[in-house]
Design a protein that fits this description.
Elements (H helix, E strand, L loop, with lengths): L9 E5 L8 E15 L2 E16 L7 E8 L1
Length: about 70
């Protein structure tokens, strides 16, 4: 969250039921692992998704969620 929000990988969210009208910045990244299997090159074998959320204008630590999907 120290740099500008990456285009296509972030959005601002405001909960309509929140009376304080707080805005949250949501960012995410997808890290793809590939490998070569026989004649098949660059086969996706895993995707790691990282999601970060921070209250806009807040200088404290953001909250991160992390998951991994493999096959």
């Amino acid at each position: 969250f120290s740099g500008n929000a990456p285009a296509g990988y972030s959005f601002l969210y405001r909960d309509p039921s929140d009376p304080s009208r707080t805005t949250y910045e949501v960012r995410w990244a997808v890290v793809t692992s590939v490998r070569t299997v026989g004649k098949l090159t660059n086969q996706v074998v895993a995707k790691r998704v990282i999601i970060g959320v921070r209250r806009q204008g807040f200088t404290g630590q953001p909250v991160f969620f992390n998951t991994l999907v493999t096959r």
